[in-house]
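agent> step 3/5: call structure_predict on target 'Integrase catalytic domain-containing protein' (Pseudoalteromonas rubra).
agent> reason: downstream docking stage needs a structural representation; sequence fetched in step 2, passing through unchanged.
tool.input:
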Amino acid sequence: MQRFTRSYREEVLDLHLFDSLQQVREITEKWLEVYNYERPHDALGDMPPVGDLEAA
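tool.output (status=ok):
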């Protein structure tokens, strides 16, 4: 969980100056889509989390 939090902070919160809570939600939703479905994760053999579950 700490790695997720660090990635979210570094890749979303630290890179944007948000105008509204709605903007935070929209950018977070897009980031989560990439994080869960596209981005390779070292701990999962370079598979995205959802791909790892589907392969099981």
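agent> step 4/5: record observation. The CA atoms of residues 16 and 23 lie 10 Å apart.
agent> proceeding.
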